[in-house]
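quick one, 345 residues, struct below
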Amino acid sequence: MHKIIVTGGAGYIGSHTVVSLINSGFEPIVVDDFSNSQRDSIKRIEKIVGQSIRFYEANTADINSFERVFAENEQIAGIIHFAAFKAVKESVDKPLMYYKNNLVSLLNCIELSEKYKVKNLVFSSSATVYGNPAELPVSEQTPTQRPSSPYGNTKKIGEEILEDYCKANPDFNAIILRYFNPIGAHVSGLIGELPNGVPNNLMPFITQTAYGLREKLSVFGNDYDTADGTALRDYVHVEDVADAHVLTLQRLVDKKNTENYEFYNLGTGKGTSVIEIIAAFEKVNDLKLNFTFEPRRAGDVPELFASTKKANEILKFKSKKSLEDMASSAWKWEKRFRDAQKNSK
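---
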């Protein structure tokens, strides 16, 4: 059984990936410091998979704290590195905090991999590295650009660090996964997206509004050159994204990668508008949302969706879950979590 270190494994995408890893016969070792996740998410993962999980409370940006994970576990087959700060607006206000945490944690992953002879790393990146692309869909051949936020720039710089390291170390393998817009939750409703403070992303804002935590949902921009005037994004179910990490890791441990530095888009290959997301949520959950149109946000692009051809062909990744699956699972998670909070008071 392959042992895999999962940094940020208690977080949104990390927790779903831990479930997928266990279901696929891997042995994840979760590392998290709960700076952007819930402590009880480990228990919820264990409830889903029906077994206990090896877990370390450690800060990946603190090499002394992080090294214990490597020292106490022999024959690590790979690392999936999720751990990072990820709030776009916060990164604009506190750029140094983002560069320090996100880049140092990646450097520590690489340095400890070298010391403990771990040869495989999967890096959690983002479609934000494409900036405002000149043509759609966005393929892996689309040039990357400097992202508009320090958060996005940490992903771009992280990719460049790994590319340079792989050139200098041919026996080390890294695969970059560029997510478009992961949404939804585990079908059980036990794990899902739980942002700190006011959500940056659309779906948790929708679910929090539906639950009554937010007075209304703000839709930024209804005058884009799209069918209904609202921005289009490539929304992909988080369980599909989690499964893609397992396929990627399998490619590395089976030594099927043709180069030691590879990168792939993760999406559905089609754009969905904000209004279409709202309509799907209302229909599948039999709810009405209170929303208003607000002016466009600075830095938002009208449309962004992926070409998934490379991931389809090479990783054998294909998104399976529908927009309705995303909307119903997100609401199931929100209700379950908030109801449990209420009942515990």
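The longest helix spans residues 323-344.
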